[in-house]
Amino acid sequence: GVNLMEFSDEILLHILSYVPCTDLVLNVRRTCRKLATLCLDKSLTHTVLLQKDYKVDKDKVKQLMRDIGKEIYQLNMAGCYWLPSSTIDHVTRCKNLVKLNLSGCHVTSLRLSKMLSSLQHLRSLAIDVNPGFDASQLSSECKATLSRVSELKQTLYTPSYGVVPCCTSLEKLLLYFEILDRSREGFMLSGQLMVGESNVPHYQNLRIFYARLAPGYVNQEVVRLYLAVLSDRTPENLHAFLISAPGSFAETGATKNLLDSMARNVRLDALQLPKAWINGSGLLQHLKFNNPFYFSFSRCTLSGGHLIQRVINGGKDLKSLTSLNLSGCVHCLAPESLFRKAEDDIDSSILESLVVSCCNLRHLNLSAAHHHSSENIGNHLCQLLSRLKHLLSLALPVCSITDVAASMEKPPTTPNLVPQTFGRKVRIGIQTYPKNLGDQANQKMESSVFWALMGSLRFLETLEIIGSSFSSAMPRNEPAIRNSLPPCVRAQSVGDSEVAAISQLTYLQSLTLAQLPNVLTGSGLISIGLQCQHLRTLSLANLGMMGKMVYMSALMDMLKHCRCLRDLRLEQPYFCAGAQFFQALSHCSSLQRLCIVSRSGTLQSDAVMSFMANCLEVIMCHMFMGESLTVCKNLQQSIVRSFQAERPALNVVIFPLLHEDLTEVIRDVPMRHLDEITLFKSRVAEEPPNLWW
């Protein structure tokens, strides 16, 4: 046999790099002398990642810092919401820290001051600013450390400048605005900064400015205060300016001055602006670009003609562009938008110019729009996209992947399907489907444009196929949506065969399918489970007819093969979360997070408890169903009482979907879970690649 210890140190170090640092230091290095030495190698202790080490607790962190604190140069504790604030005190042992991420951790002003006072080499910092934060409590030593910080990521839960005024050497500033319009008591909040918050930020060295706003007018008020300084004097070295704002975010005189100054003085490599700042303006015509790597025009009314002329210079070489977000740009593939209907066919020449010019695209988002191809041979959207051989992530509307001829045919129906607009509760049993359905699907797929597209994008890691009219039943700060819009007519034929085509993506890691109306059995899901063995994230929403959970049997068969699946999100009316489903889900031995959203859905408490006992890695269980508040509360309390001690990161939310207090419950969900899985959204090209670590 082969003795592992006979391998060279280089091979062993490579193997050990896949082991969490806490296991290396606290367990593996105690097995033998050789591993004791290797586990403390600088290549393994230089960077410590705890952000998704859900088993780590305060005692392990304390011991880790005590053993290797001086060897740590980069520490990522983002999203460690379960660790008490006292845990942060042990970070002071890491005297050589250069990069520190504490986003999602509980840190008070005093604790932050004490910690930063001892980190004189720190250059990169990520923190949250919560209600009660007081910059006047920061010591002079702390401010001295902040004055040397060049990269800052700040998540704001209260109107504040946070530590920005202390960071006089900023080159990269990332701001996440998560301020609610109302307090827990129901009082309206103001966007005015607190007393003592009048210090002016220092932007003179700024190279990257990024701001992402959650819904709400307070967030808009506060971000304007941050932008006011930029409008007075635009940094000469600014090369990335990005503002992601949902809904309407009106342009003001100050922001117009800022954009005019940018047009005169800077050359950008990355750009994202609120739609109101772009729509109807000639801004893009005046902005200058250097070697752009990221563009986002999400929800803008930008026409394809303007896109080609003003952004990619009439089809000139734009090989530097690696990420492009055109989600919600309903006219971006049409020459003009003035007299065009959103459902009209696209102009394939515009897409062809885009593909030729941006041939190195790795991330492309075309979702939330009707991109209908014409009948011209060779000009289908899927055929043109197949030329982008470097794509790693792709988001498309359902209606864009159908063959034109097939979309004109009436989709197959079965006599027991319930019309979508009159969904009723039905008994859910084991669905049956013909054994030769896979063979029938293969014959259809091999001649389809979507089959060919999937075959050409062999290295795709993330795929989203989302209905152009789909909206989740659980939006951010509003009551649950009770009715959904019908799917696009062109999407009516998209179903099992298209789902099966996805199984060609051997390296697929994340898959989102929403509003595929012609899913009759879900047989394609089984093919994905068998072939896509690297699948880690799966999100399924409103597949098939809305009145029935028609694909339950196939889903359960699929789950038995998903050994690497970590995140599962299901959104389907009338979903029955019973014993058979959870028994199948128990085969997903790596599962960590589960979210089920189901109007009029039911669950079996005993089955849920058994599932939680069998799947030891699960640390998040969110269920928003049709059960009563009493049933939900009792089950939630039982799970917490039974498993919280063994799983410190356990987060359980079980609540009626249509309850009036749903938004109050949502606000207590850790941002990591809320942003990554609980809330439905398209995530392809949502941010520039490698924006933060």
From TrEMBL:
A biological process term (GO) from this entry: SCF-dependent proteasomal ubiquitin-dependent protein catabolic process
GO cellular component, one term: SCF ubiquitin ligase complex
Signal sequence segment: none
Pfam families: F-box-like (PF12937), LRR_FBXL18 (PF19729)
SUPFAM superfamilies for the chain: F-box domain, RNI-like
InterPro entries reported in the protein's UniProt record: F-box-like_dom_sf, F-box_dom, FBXL18_F-box, FBXL18_LRR, LRR_dom_sf
Start and end residues of each F-box domain: 1-48
Source superkingdom: Eukaryota
Gene3D superfamilies: 1.20.1280.50, Ribonuclease Inhibitor
Entry protein name: FXL18 protein
Species the sequence originates in: Sterrhoptilus dennistouni
